[in-house]
Amino acid sequence: MFRPGELDGVETALVDRLDFLIAGVQKGGTTALWHFLRQHPNICFGSRKELHFFDDETRNWQAPNYDALHRHYAPGDLRAGAVMGDATPIYTYWTPALERIYAYNRDIKLIVSLRHPAERAYSHWRMEILRNAETLSFSEAIRDGRKRVAEQAERDGLHRVYSYVERGFYAEQLEKVFSMFARQQVLILKQTDLACRFGAVMDEICSFLDIGRFPTYPRREQVFSFAERLEDSFSEEDRSYLEAVFHDDMKALRDVYGIRFCRQ
Question: What pTM does this model have?
Fold first, then answer.
């Protein structure tokens, strides 16, 4: 939320509260969303993607200092009529973050971009391999490697790196989201929507945020993480294994939210 202010006699722009968050999910097209939305004249993001404020376990959450979040928004970048947002896609998975977000602004809007959970898991694993944060094969990581999530959890059975499978239980995450936020405050997308109906999705987001449409749609550079080469794909055995693991959750997604995934 933008509000004009005055500091030392100089008119400045102050952030009172953020209006929206791209809150999920990692490897679900959030970088593409952030890339496109920050090209809208009435959407302002902070100094970088993924401010990681509400999942920061080092903060004093009994008396949170929101100035530490708001200082990422430069006064010169803010303007009347603009909405302020951040894109930190761990928030739907990091359960304490949702409670902190609600305490911060119960009227905030959340955008959640989903991807087939098996494909999301593989993309997540590839990212950690490239970061040298993972040594197990994908097959090992999604099977016995899952023990590490509980054994090395940072908070409440949550792990940032090894949660390839755990982050894919979307119905569980959405149940938590909707236990706190009204349905009209949450926009659920699928990563493939950005490729298949780009203009419609951009319009839908603008309507959701109560701002005008893009004067000109953003250029669609290849920023989608699902553009992996076919030879980099994971095995049919691993896919079938994960689809069995996610079966009940994906059924709940279909039955409750009407969300279905097609293989890419």
Answer: 0.92
